Amino acid sequence: MNHPPVITIDGPSGVGKGTMATMLANTLGWHFLDSGALYRLLALKVLRVGAGLVPVQLVDIAKNLDIYFKDTRVYLDNEDVTEAIRQEEVGLAASQTSAFPEVRQALLERQRAFAQAPGLVTDGRDMGSVVFPNADVKFYLDASPEIRAKRREQQLKASGISVKFGDLLEDMQKRDRQDKSRLVAPLVVPQGAIEIDTGLLSKEQVFEKILSEVKSRLRSNGGV
User: How many other C-beta atoms lie within 10 A of the C-beta of residue 169?
Assistant: First the structure.
């Protein structure tokens, strides 16, 4: 390969794409990019400074975000915000801010810069369709809104956050509509992506499917 290999994992919120991408990156010893974290970091910053949803303001904030990733933690302005960016309010704000073409363009090159040797595993909503359309292997994970909302409820409660299933389901369905209907980079199944329904599969079963496909594809392409 003449470029660092890239594997993308796309899908709606709550399908386990972040977990799968992290596991895969660790297994391969590759770099990892949680693209959704970038938009959530921007959304959190916007909420904290009280900025309106005006493109010129959002782009300015996006270009000057003081962020970094360390191990599995995410930092904004030298503060660990790993849990903070997973709040539903931040997720909805991220969906709104990411709908602006100017915002997506401001973060595009920042995302592509993560593609370095020995390789990159990234997850998001437009990784295989827009950011890395020529990725070596693409996946699209999906599951019903009800299953995804139940998973999110369990995650939040395990972190000590009190939530109501009905509210989570409503927020998730709202975000699905926003992500799929936005004019710029809507959530779609990327061309050539391997589709996996994670609804009735365990985490181990999903990962086994993904790792098997990756090894097969990269081997046939002359990779690892």
Answer: 17
Residue type at 180? Answer: K
In the chain, the amino acid numbered 56 is: V
Domain residues for 131? 16-206
pLDDT tens digits along 148-206: 999 889 888 888 888 899 999 998 999 899 889 888 788 999 999 999 999 999 999 99
Listed in sequence order, the residues at least 6 apart from 70 whose beta carbon sits closer than 8 Å to its beta carbon are none
The C-alpha atoms of residue 51 and residue 61 are separated, in whole angstroms, by 9
Tokens describing residue 209: 């499917």
Q: Whole-angstrom distance between the N-terminal and C-terminal Cα of the chain?
A: 10
- CA atoms of 187 and 163, how far apart (whole Å): 26
Q: Would you say the C-alpha torsion 124, 129, 134, 135 has a positive or negative sign? A: positive
Please tell me the total count of domains within the chain. Answer: 1
Q: Residue 214, SS3?
A: helix
Position 2 in a domain: no
Rounded Cα distance, 122 and 10, in Å: 8
pLDDT band at 53 (very low <50, low <70, confident <90, very high): confident
Q: Is residue 184, in this structure, part of any structural domain at all?
A: yes
189: in domain: yes
